[in-house]
Amino acid sequence: MTTAKDIMHPGAQWIPAHETLDRAAQLMRELNVGALPIADADERLCGILTDRDIVVGCVAMGHDPSKITAGDMARGTPRWIESGADVGDVLHEMQEHQIRRLPVIENKRLVGMISEADLAQHLSEDQLAQWVEQVYARA
């Protein structure tokens, strides 16, 4: 059985909810990623911040990214998956909620992220095509 841990990109890092968006952008650059899970004070997932969120939700709105926090941008119910979950469960979670990135949790700690690139490396062409149809066609 292939698990979430088998296909995830390890070493994902949180951005604390109190950190500003300019710091989040710097961390994204350092890590070469386009999204960061947002952690509350108890290191629990409270959202995901994307580079697009920073540009569209802050900069394009005329706000100062040094004054807006990651927590300010956290909206909705964050989705995640346990590291031992089957890849079918991963695909279902992403398809059901039309999400392109999924944090992987083990013992209540962030251990990785699953992105489109991870799926492309580990899925068959048919599985990937079905995932794309479900996530993008309904968007």
From TrEMBL:
<protein>
    <submittedName>
        <fullName>CBS domain-containing protein</fullName>
    </submittedName>
</protein>
<dbReference type="InterPro" id="IPR046342">
    <property type="entry name" value="CBS_dom_sf"/>
</dbReference>
<feature type="domain" description="CBS">
    <location>
        <begin position="8"/>
        <end position="66"/>
    </location>
</feature>
<dbReference type="Pfam" id="PF00571">
    <property type="entry name" value="CBS"/>
</dbReference>
<dbReference type="InterPro" id="IPR051257">
    <property type="entry name" value="Diverse_CBS-Domain"/>
</dbReference>
<dbReference type="InterPro" id="IPR000644">
    <property type="entry name" value="CBS_dom"/>
</dbReference>
<keyword id="KW-0129">CBS domain</keyword>
<feature type="domain" description="CBS">
    <location>
        <begin position="73"/>
        <end position="130"/>
    </location>
</feature>
